Amino acid sequence: MYTTHLENLAESLRGVLGDKLIDVQVRFGELTIIVCAEDIFAASEMLRDDPALAFDTLIDLCGIDYSTYSSGDLSDKNNLKNRRFAVIYHLLSVDRNHRLRIRVLTENNDYPVVNSVTDIWPVANWFEREAFDLYGIVFTGHPDLRRILTDYGFIGNPFRKDFPITGHVEMRYDAEQKRVIYQPVTIEPREVTPLVIREENYGDSES
Questions:
Q1: Whether pLDDT at 112 is above 60
Q2: Residue 108's closest CA among 129, 69, 138?
Q3: Calpha distance 163→136 (Å, rounded)
Q4: Domain ranges for the chain
Q5: Mean of the pLDDT values across residues 123-140?
Q6: Burial of 153 per CB tally in 10 Å (0-12, 13-18, 19+)
Q7: Most buried residue, 85, 111, 147, 202, by CB count within 10 Å?
Protein backbone atom coordinates (compact mmCIF):
# COMPACT_ATOMS: atom_id res chain seq x y z
CA MET A 1 0.00 0.00 0.00
CA TYR A 2 2.78 2.41 0.99
CA THR A 3 4.82 1.52 -2.11
CA THR A 4 1.79 2.23 -4.31
CA HIS A 5 1.40 5.61 -2.64
CA LEU A 6 5.03 6.52 -3.43
CA GLU A 7 4.67 5.31 -7.01
CA ASN A 8 1.55 7.45 -7.48
CA LEU A 9 3.32 10.46 -5.98
CA ALA A 10 6.34 9.91 -8.24
CA GLU A 11 4.07 9.78 -11.28
CA SER A 12 2.37 13.03 -10.23
CA LEU A 13 5.78 14.69 -9.81
CA ARG A 14 6.84 13.63 -13.31
CA GLY A 15 3.64 15.05 -14.76
CA VAL A 16 3.86 18.37 -12.91
CA LEU A 17 7.60 19.10 -13.03
CA GLY A 18 8.32 17.73 -16.50
CA ASP A 19 11.81 18.58 -17.76
CA LYS A 20 12.67 20.31 -14.47
CA LEU A 21 12.91 16.85 -12.92
CA ILE A 22 16.36 15.28 -13.37
CA ASP A 23 15.82 12.08 -11.42
CA VAL A 24 13.39 10.30 -9.08
CA GLN A 25 14.61 7.85 -6.42
CA VAL A 26 12.75 5.64 -3.97
CA ARG A 27 14.95 4.25 -1.20
CA PHE A 28 14.12 2.99 2.28
CA GLY A 29 10.50 3.96 1.82
CA GLU A 30 11.32 7.60 1.01
CA LEU A 31 10.96 9.57 -2.21
CA THR A 32 13.74 11.87 -3.39
CA ILE A 33 13.86 14.02 -6.52
CA ILE A 34 16.79 15.86 -8.06
CA VAL A 35 16.26 19.31 -9.56
CA CYS A 36 18.68 21.71 -11.25
CA ALA A 37 19.78 24.67 -9.16
CA GLU A 38 18.42 27.11 -11.72
CA ASP A 39 14.97 25.45 -11.55
CA ILE A 40 14.50 25.17 -7.79
CA PHE A 41 12.36 28.30 -7.39
CA ALA A 42 9.97 27.44 -10.23
CA ALA A 43 9.83 23.79 -9.15
CA SER A 44 9.10 24.79 -5.55
CA GLU A 45 6.26 27.01 -6.67
CA MET A 46 4.74 24.12 -8.64
CA LEU A 47 5.14 21.74 -5.71
CA ARG A 48 3.34 24.14 -3.41
CA ASP A 49 0.55 25.28 -5.75
CA ASP A 50 -0.39 22.13 -7.67
CA PRO A 51 -3.49 20.66 -5.95
CA ALA A 52 -2.34 17.08 -6.50
CA LEU A 53 0.91 17.79 -4.63
CA ALA A 54 0.13 20.68 -2.24
CA PHE A 55 3.48 20.75 -0.46
CA ASP A 56 2.55 23.61 1.83
CA THR A 57 5.23 23.05 4.49
CA LEU A 58 9.03 23.17 4.35
CA ILE A 59 10.17 21.02 7.29
CA ASP A 60 13.91 21.43 6.86
CA LEU A 61 16.63 22.71 4.55
CA CYS A 62 20.33 21.93 4.92
CA GLY A 63 23.60 21.87 3.00
CA ILE A 64 25.88 18.93 2.16
CA ASP A 65 29.55 18.78 1.21
CA TYR A 66 30.19 15.71 -0.97
CA SER A 67 33.94 16.31 -1.31
CA THR A 68 35.07 13.22 0.63
CA TYR A 69 32.53 10.65 -0.55
CA SER A 70 31.40 11.87 -3.98
CA SER A 71 27.93 12.45 -5.34
CA GLY A 72 28.54 9.96 -8.15
CA ASP A 73 26.05 7.43 -6.84
CA LEU A 74 23.21 9.87 -7.55
CA SER A 75 23.22 10.05 -11.32
CA ASP A 76 25.46 11.11 -14.19
CA LYS A 77 22.61 13.04 -15.79
CA ASN A 78 23.46 16.71 -16.35
CA ASN A 79 27.06 15.92 -15.28
CA LEU A 80 26.23 15.68 -11.56
CA LYS A 81 29.04 13.31 -10.59
CA ASN A 82 31.63 15.92 -9.64
CA ARG A 83 29.35 18.41 -7.90
CA ARG A 84 30.64 19.15 -4.41
CA PHE A 85 27.79 21.01 -2.71
CA ALA A 86 24.09 20.29 -2.49
CA VAL A 87 21.04 21.72 -0.77
CA ILE A 88 18.48 19.29 0.63
CA TYR A 89 14.82 20.25 1.13
CA HIS A 90 12.31 18.22 3.16
CA LEU A 91 8.68 18.96 2.28
CA LEU A 92 5.36 17.96 3.79
CA SER A 93 1.85 18.18 2.43
CA VAL A 94 -0.46 18.45 5.42
CA ASP A 95 -3.54 18.14 3.24
CA ARG A 96 -2.34 15.17 1.17
CA ASN A 97 -0.30 13.55 3.94
CA HIS A 98 2.83 12.88 1.90
CA ARG A 99 6.49 13.84 2.17
CA LEU A 100 9.24 14.61 -0.31
CA ARG A 101 12.97 15.21 -0.33
CA ILE A 102 14.52 17.50 -2.96
CA ARG A 103 18.22 17.42 -3.77
CA VAL A 104 19.78 20.34 -5.63
CA LEU A 105 23.46 20.16 -6.58
CA THR A 106 25.17 23.50 -7.13
CA GLU A 107 26.90 24.04 -10.46
CA ASN A 108 30.06 25.82 -9.26
CA ASN A 109 32.18 24.03 -6.63
CA ASP A 110 34.19 27.18 -5.88
CA TYR A 111 31.17 29.48 -5.53
CA PRO A 112 28.01 27.43 -4.81
CA VAL A 113 24.83 29.36 -5.62
CA VAL A 114 21.15 28.38 -5.36
CA ASN A 115 18.02 30.50 -5.68
CA SER A 116 16.30 31.29 -2.40
CA VAL A 117 12.86 29.79 -1.74
CA THR A 118 11.91 32.23 1.03
CA ASP A 119 9.15 33.66 -1.17
CA ILE A 120 7.67 30.16 -1.45
CA TRP A 121 8.15 29.05 2.15
CA PRO A 122 9.11 31.96 4.46
CA VAL A 123 10.44 29.48 7.05
CA ALA A 124 13.39 28.90 4.69
CA ASN A 125 14.87 32.23 5.83
CA TRP A 126 16.92 30.97 8.79
CA PHE A 127 17.56 27.56 7.22
CA GLU A 128 19.23 29.24 4.23
CA ARG A 129 21.22 31.53 6.48
CA GLU A 130 22.50 28.46 8.34
CA ALA A 131 23.56 26.73 5.09
CA PHE A 132 25.25 29.98 4.01
CA ASP A 133 27.07 30.27 7.33
CA LEU A 134 28.20 26.65 7.68
CA TYR A 135 28.79 25.69 4.02
CA GLY A 136 29.22 29.00 2.19
CA ILE A 137 26.26 28.32 -0.12
CA VAL A 138 24.88 31.61 -1.47
CA PHE A 139 21.10 31.92 -1.84
CA THR A 140 20.28 34.56 -4.42
CA GLY A 141 17.16 36.56 -3.65
CA HIS A 142 17.39 35.99 0.10
CA PRO A 143 16.18 39.11 1.97
CA ASP A 144 18.92 39.10 4.64
CA LEU A 145 21.71 36.63 3.88
CA ARG A 146 24.22 36.85 6.72
CA ARG A 147 25.78 34.53 9.28
CA ILE A 148 23.46 33.11 11.91
CA LEU A 149 25.53 30.75 14.13
CA THR A 150 29.10 32.04 13.90
CA ASP A 151 30.47 35.50 14.56
CA TYR A 152 30.21 38.04 11.73
CA GLY A 153 34.02 38.16 11.57
CA PHE A 154 34.35 34.38 11.42
CA ILE A 155 36.74 33.08 8.76
CA GLY A 156 35.58 30.18 6.59
CA ASN A 157 32.67 27.76 6.75
CA PRO A 158 32.97 25.20 9.58
CA PHE A 159 30.91 22.37 8.04
CA ARG A 160 33.02 22.15 4.89
CA LYS A 161 35.09 18.97 4.87
CA ASP A 162 38.34 20.89 4.35
CA PHE A 163 37.79 23.18 7.34
CA PRO A 164 40.38 22.43 10.08
CA ILE A 165 38.98 20.94 13.29
CA THR A 166 40.81 23.56 15.36
CA GLY A 167 39.57 26.41 13.17
CA HIS A 168 41.74 29.24 11.85
CA VAL A 169 41.69 31.49 14.93
CA GLU A 170 40.58 31.36 18.54
CA MET A 171 39.07 34.12 20.63
CA ARG A 172 39.36 35.02 24.29
CA TYR A 173 38.55 37.88 26.61
CA ASP A 174 41.49 40.24 27.13
CA ALA A 175 41.38 41.78 30.62
CA GLU A 176 43.68 44.67 29.69
CA GLN A 177 41.75 45.68 26.58
CA LYS A 178 38.45 44.73 28.25
CA ARG A 179 37.13 43.12 25.09
CA VAL A 180 37.11 39.85 23.17
CA ILE A 181 40.07 39.47 20.81
CA TYR A 182 41.08 37.02 18.09
CA GLN A 183 44.46 35.30 18.12
CA PRO A 184 46.22 32.43 16.31
CA VAL A 185 45.19 28.94 17.35
CA THR A 186 47.30 27.68 20.27
CA ILE A 187 45.99 24.10 20.29
CA GLU A 188 48.47 21.68 18.72
CA PRO A 189 46.81 19.23 16.31
CA ARG A 190 46.99 15.64 17.52
CA GLU A 191 45.51 12.27 16.79
CA VAL A 192 43.76 10.64 19.71
CA THR A 193 43.88 6.83 19.71
CA PRO A 194 41.80 5.10 22.36
CA LEU A 195 43.61 2.66 24.64
CA VAL A 196 41.98 -0.76 24.51
CA ILE A 197 42.80 -3.20 27.32
CA ARG A 198 41.79 -6.85 26.96
CA GLU A 199 42.37 -9.94 29.02
CA GLU A 200 45.42 -11.98 28.07
CA ASN A 201 43.42 -14.79 26.47
CA TYR A 202 40.58 -12.65 25.13
CA GLY A 203 39.05 -14.19 22.03
CA ASP A 204 40.71 -17.56 22.34
CA SER A 205 38.38 -20.49 21.82
CA GLU A 206 37.81 -22.66 24.83
CA SER A 207 39.70 -25.94 24.84
A1: yes
A2: 138
A3: 12
A4: 2-150
A5: 98
A6: exposed
A7: 85
